[in-house]
Prior knowledge:
- α4 packs across α5, α6 (about 165-225) packs antiparallel against α7 (about 230-280) and α7 runs antiparallel to α8 (about 285-325).
- Among the domains are: about 1-20 and about 165-280; about 30-165, no CATH class; about 460-545, Alpha-Beta Plaits (2-Layer Sandwich).
- It is built from 12 helices and 16 strands.
- By secondary structure, it is of the alpha+beta class.
- Strands 12-11-10-9-13 form a 5-stranded antiparallel sheet. Strands 1-2-3 form a 3-stranded antiparallel sheet. A 3-stranded antiparallel sheet has the order 6-7-8.
- The longest helix has about 55 residues, at about 165-225.
Amino acid sequence: MRAVLFALLVFFAGASAAPAQSLIAPASSAPQSGIRQQGLYVTAPITLDGDFLLTIADPAAPQSGGIPIAQRQAAIENALAQAVAVVGGTGARATVYDPYTLDVRIARQDGQPAIQLTDARHSAPMALLTVTPADAKFHGTTAASLAAWWKPILSEALRGALIKRQPAVEKRNAKDTGIAAAALVAFTLLLFFAVILPLRRRIGGIEERSKMRSMQMERDRVQEPESTANTHEGRRHFVALALRVSDPRRQAKALRATVAALIWVLVLAWFGAIVWALFLFPQTTPLAHRVVQTLLAVAATWIATGLVNRLLDIAINRLGDAWRTREYRSSEERARELLRIPTVTFALSGFKTFLLLFVAVLVTLGEVGIPVWSVVTFGGLTAIGITLAAQNFVRDFVNGFLVLFEDQYVVGDYITINAQSGIVENLTLRIAQLRDMAGNLVTIPHSTVTSVVNHSRNWSRVDYRVSVDPGADMQKAVATVRRAIHEVAQEDQWRGVALEPVEWIGVDALSRDGVVIRASMKTAPLRQFDLRRAINERVEALFKEAGIGLGAPITDPMQTTG
């Protein structure tokens, strides 16, 4: 059982066998680290099972006959490893030194204080380290005082390491690890099947109902009697439908946040349990220290990133609220800005999040041991090969910024980009996505845009054309078309839509197959299509009533502009 649990710990921890072997390996084979220069001294840390114990020092200028600090560090850590070593085979394992009779003492050796180790099993003391004058000067004290300071530190560390290696303690720790693992598995299954899965089903049901309400809202918008489309009651109706759709979405968002929080609770519980288990066994204790240190640094990085991201989100939302509530010169300007505000804030929020995540990833790579500056340097060298490809990427962002800054178009506008027409459904600093009349989603990078036509900026226009029989009375036909436009504009559902019922009207083209009568009228944004259909119906009815025949179809009708 103990072997199985230990294997599981090694599996979770990664390559933990190497640190385990380093505890009892000769000093020459153990990689030393942490040596650095501090002023006039070179220092090195002394550790045991991954725990920092003390710092030794040597003069920065090498002295003749002196032992290099790396060798001294290796010799001290090797002595500590031998002091806590385990001997014997399966069933008869025991530590070399007895933790309960362990005695760390100070003796004089070559005129310097030396810290030695003995116990009831060993009459001859084993030297652990010698306190040098350089150690004393670095710590700002005498060698004897420094030895007295280090003695209890080493005694406590060695006693704890030896107790942890006792077969009875290892067996108890393995048993505790098995109980904790079983309890955690049971808790995970209970939380997943009793809480998380029901919440996910509930979210799915809410999203399905929200989807059905959205479809119903769209059907109501299309089928709503035009007599109420522009009245106060009609607006209240559509606002109520929109609120009915948005409320389930907010509820689903809150439930998704709850599920995410529960999953994070499980992740943290498993991580805490694994780290706790790693600390129980001497073979995995160094790895546990590295995991905790790395995780704390990474967690601090991402917590700070999330906090900054949230604060910037609040600032951007406050900016949008201030922009939304300021006074406008006209209702048309206010309507335009209300379309522009969410587009700009969404783009700024996305770009800000991208920059923060990029910086956080670089910091995280540095914390886990990947040389970030080498990556950046390598990226700088390889950038020569991808410069041409990156030009379009950078141009996308620059052009996207100009689109927002110059208010060329926003989400909700009907535009034509490079002969692609549709309603802007999504707009970022890199791309614009249009939904065309066939329902296709067209994605256009800003760097490929050569021309943009905005058909719904503040107002739109119906460029109306109808072909009349050449034998008809042209004055009567023009008057009939004018009458049809005026009658439509006077109807309740088109009040406020036809801003200028007839800007101009007249005969635009002559041929033996038909005479084209052309009229222009200004409409509210994106209402030109509905108004054109209503005018067609009225013109057809009045032409029949007046006995005016239609001419040949117009082969190249102009599209609506505005």
